[in-house]
Amino acid sequence: MKRWTHRPPGSNWGDFGDDDELGRINLLTPERVVAAVREVQVGKVFCLSLPLDLPGGNVLNPRRHPPRTFATARGNGQANFNFLLRLLDPRQIDMISDDAVLMALQYSTQWDSFAHVGALFDADGDGVPEPVYYNGFRAGEDVVTPAYRNGPVDWCCNEGVQARKMGIETMAAACVQGRGVLIDLHAVAGRARKVIGWDDLKAAMDSQGVVVEPGDMVCLWTGFDQVILEQKGKPSAESLHGSCATLDGHDERIQQWVTDSGMVALISDNYAVEQTPAVPPPGDGTYPALPLHHHCLFKLGVHLGELWYLGELAAWLRANGRNRFLLTAPPLRLPGAVGSPATPVATV
C-alpha cells in the first residue's frame, strides 16, 4: 500500500521506488565509483573525523554529551580491564581489557539519516498534516518512539527508539564510497561568523573551479574544525556559536542548487551545515526550523554530514590546485539508529 497520495513540492519521493530508503545514494552507481577512484593520483590519505570526544562539553547542543567509556564486568563485578587471567587459572599469562561506550551518536563527526528530520505534511491527502519522513515513512509506525520509563531524567528513560525504516544501517550497507568535492568557505569568511547565501557560495565555487556533478559528495570547509581543536575539549559558547561560515538554509537558490546538482550528500565541518537557529521568515505561516535539513533529508533524500575534520585535506588540495578526491565514508551499521559517528577517509 502506497504511503502517500501526493508528495511535497520539489521533492523526489517515489523517483527511486515507493519503498526507497536510500535517496540520492542511488546515484552512486558503479560507474561513478570508478570515476571517483580515478581522482586518486598520489595515494595520500586523510582522516576526516575529529576525535569523537570533541567538541567537548554540551555547549554546542545541551542534549548531547561527550562519550562515556566503561569497562565490561566479570561475574563478580570486577572490571574486565587490565584483568589478569591468572586470577582464574594461575597457569594463564594473558591480560584482558574490554570496554563499552555510551554516547550521543551525533555528538561529533557524524552522518544524519533520513529519520533524523521529518515534517508535518499531508501525505495522504485528507487535509490533515501528519508527521512523516522522507518518502512518506510514518512517525510511530516506521520510526518508533520510546516507551518512557519512570526514573531519573537521563538516557534510560527513553530507551526503545528505533527507525524500522531509513535507519542508518541502510546507508552503511550501501558502503558510501564516491567522489568528494571540496568548497573552501574559509576563503570567503575566515574566522568571522558569516551566513553564506547563494551569491557568496557561487562566487567561491567559480573562483576555485569547483564543478559539482551527479553522484558527488560536497564538502564545505569553514575552519570551524580548527576552532574546535584549539578549544581542547573545553569550548566556550561564544567560540562555537560565533565563528566561521554557515549556509543560509532559507536561500531558495541554494536549495535549488542542491536539487539540480544531483549531489548525494552535503557535508561540512560546522555544527549543522546551515545557520541554526534559522531566522523565521516574515508572516504567520508555518515554516521548517531547519530549512536545509528539511530540503535535503525530508524532500530529496540527501544525507547531511556534520562536524567533519576537513582542514588538513583542504590545505593539501589548495596547495596542489585540486578540489576532488576519493571519499570513503560509511556510517556504523547500527540497526535502527537515526545518526551515526563516522571516520571518513579521503584519498588523493
Account of the 3D structure:
This protein is α+β, with helices and mostly antiparallel strands and 348 residues long. The chain has two domains: 23-60 and 105-118 and 163-347, Glucose Oxidase, domain 1 (3-Layer(bba) Sandwich), CATH 3.50.30; 68-102, no CATH class. The chain has helices at 30-37, 168-173, 186-189, 198-208, 224-231, 237-241, 252-261, 291-300, 311-319; strands at 45-47, 68-71, 83-84, 95-96, 99-102, 110-112, 119-121, 130-132, 143-144, 162-163, 177-184, 194-196, 217-221, 245-247, 265-268, 303-306, 324-328, 339-341, 345-347. Helix 8 (291-300) links the parallel strand 15 (265-268) and strand 16 (303-306). The longest helix is centred in the middle third of the chain and has 11 residues, at 198-208. The radius of gyration is 22 Å and the shape is globular. The termini are far apart.
How can the largest sheet be summarized? Answer: 9 strands, mixed
Structural class: alpha+beta
Distance between the termini: 46 Å
> Order of strands side by side in the largest beta sheet?
1-19-17-11-13-15-16-6-18
What ranges have pLDDT less than 50 throughout 5 or more consecutive residues? none
CATH level-four homologous superfamily name of the largest domain: Putative cyclase
Fraction of residues in H or I helices: 10-25%
How do the SSEs run, as a string of H and E?
HEEEEEEEEEEHEHEHEHHEHEHEHEEE
Number of helices: 9
Q: Briefly, what CATH class of the largest domain?
A: Alpha Beta
Shape by Cα distribution: globular
Strand content: 15-25%
CATH architectural arrangement of the largest domain:
3-Layer(bba) Sandwich
Tell me the domain tally. Answer: 2
